[in-house]
Amino acid sequence: MSRPLEGLLVLEFCQFLAGPSAGLKLADMGARVIKIERPLKGEAGRQLAIKNMFVEGDSLLFHTINRNKESYAADLKNQDDLNAVKELIAKADVITHNFRPGVMEKIGLDYASVKALNSRIIYATVTGYGNAGPWATKPGQDLLVQSLSGLAYLSGTADQGPVPFGLSVSDIMCGNHLTQGILAALIKRARTKQSVLVEVSLLESTLDMQFEVLTTYLNDGKKLPQRSYVKGAGHAYLSAPYGIYETADGYLALAMGDLNKIAAAIGCDISSLFTGGNSSFDRRDDILEAFSETFKEKHTKDWLEILVPLDIWCADVLDYKRAVEHPAFGQLGISQSVQVSDSLEIRTTRSPIRIDNRKLLSSKPAPKVGAHNSTLNQEFNIQNETT
Amino acid sequence: MRPLEGYLIIDFGQFLSGPSASLRLADLGARVIKIERPEGGDICRSLYTSNVVMNGDSSVFHAINRNKESFAADLKNPQDRDTIRTLLLKADIVMHNFRPGVMERLGFDYNSVKAIKPDVIYGEISGYGSEGEYKDRPGQDLLLQSLTGLTWLTGNADSGPVAMGLSIVDMLAGAHLAEGILACLYRKAVSGEGGLVQVSMLESAYDFQFETITTFMNDGGENPQRSLTNNANAYLGAPYGIYQTADGYLALAMGSIPVLGKLLGCDALASYADAAVAFEKRDEVKSILGQHLRTDSTQKWLSILEPADIWCADVLNWNQLFEHEGFKVLNMTQKVSMSDGYTYQTTRCPIRIDGELLTSGKGSPKLGQDNQTILTEFSL
Question: What is the pTM assigned to this prediction?
């Protein structure tokens, strides 16, 4: 069977992570995704590097986020280029952008104008904080959104102050929501034959991510999260023993479970602390401390040999070096190669979704700026001298 | 019209990963029927995940399962299985998050369902896939965070492994399942064919880390190094982080160090000119910056940095956030009602379609509350 989105054409005006990560998901599921980029420099993400790592002039990050896409270079301030882009829009199924509110209006590619060019377009936007209110013009950047959303008070320990998630989690969640919205819109369009507007924001996505704990907060007299004082505690709202414990030679993660059974298995007397009922919550820190002392006595491997056969939910705590050596990493086929040029390959991840028993692999690399202008001009019969 | 109006989903899922996907699909317009065991139902109803009980079930259950119906059935009872099989004939989507092998034993695996409903879209979430030696291990969020290297990204260099304080892998797996199901629904709308969608928490956890694990696979295999203080991303240089001020905290994203130093009146920062230095000497820079920012209030620093277009923000807790106009304008919360009249506050779907907020006033179901209606409606 074919990939589910085969035949769909997506124009991506987005930059950086949130929007382009959605483009990547759609591409791996079969859509054809064309990045619309300014000539020469291209999207800003090409120069945003971590560890200063570049591959053929573009950051490794850019290659990671933009593989399996094409690129059409166009200066949206140039009338010929803009006309060419409008011809592409007329043929497209989806366009995405993450400009700040007002930018696309100025260019003449706001939803109303685009709808006039293509009455069946899915028009999808990402903002930082929505289009209204005092934050509408604030930079939509991941750490800032984490900080404003309350998320930074959920990890780490009570004495640490705010601890942000160490990845661009707001961008990534928002990219997933954008993908969902676009796909739902395509289903709607299949019935109505009409265009659909999809809007997501980093802040709404980051609040949605906290939907469980926010619901607890909203119905519990607005008590703020109480992180544990014990190093390694895993979740502000979960009872003992949830957390990561230091062992004689490393660490062990222990999830929720029957406290009496676990205490007996590891030989830790908590009878004065855990007395049933709510005491796994009320005495959380005391129980975590007692367990912390016990877990230091043996190696991680020895604990696993005791706990795993009892079906107690636990795991070793791996760093990247050990994680990629873990049998599941290879057996599930987490990584794939992308062919950047005849002589250059990079290893990266693949789509996490399997369709019809198939992994959605793709060796197609991220494009150079404007790499597909002539092909696209020809294919869509676009007359454009400047590109 | 909501995009998924008219679609029927039968969800065998429990806890968070699967049910978070069906919640999203429900808000997008689908009708979701939860299949629950008659004794106790979804384990998430119990105290396991929260000590806040609302109308008999945990607060977490109410968050995840609003806008759904509940059908109680004992899948070990042949008669109940027959009823469910008949119900599946009407389903567009069937989903579950049991460990591999469970649905096969019950006769509700993809091949069995496809045999009676050829165009079904079938979605499943596992912990570690349905192949390989880890397939039978518990797919639990903290364990997946721990096995995929994720715990070495948050916190400072001396913090040891630090879990992200939410069930983030569950939620991502749920999001990915929803995406696969939606893509297949689109294909079905166009071509009529059904499909199988499979997601595992392990694959979702690595997809989450696609930037950093790709870096690891191409930098000679160096483990991430968090900064000594104020870490917010192990792979980014100073000033990226959250800093204490005289009366609170301040988040600082990317920016030139000398420019920051000048704006903040901190001469010691003038010499860290290029980006490579801001990375290599980030512990030094963060320490200087940290000491300086403690000398005045968050508002003072914001009033200097924001006009200069430096990417910065206050750090809010929920009480402060909920009072802020920037939050209020989003209308992010909604009130929902259960069938017995109990009402509660929760959040809404984060996606807007055609300018509309996808709110829903329907609360979570009581266990088995919809059995009679469903039996009658589908002549079961």
Answer: 0.98
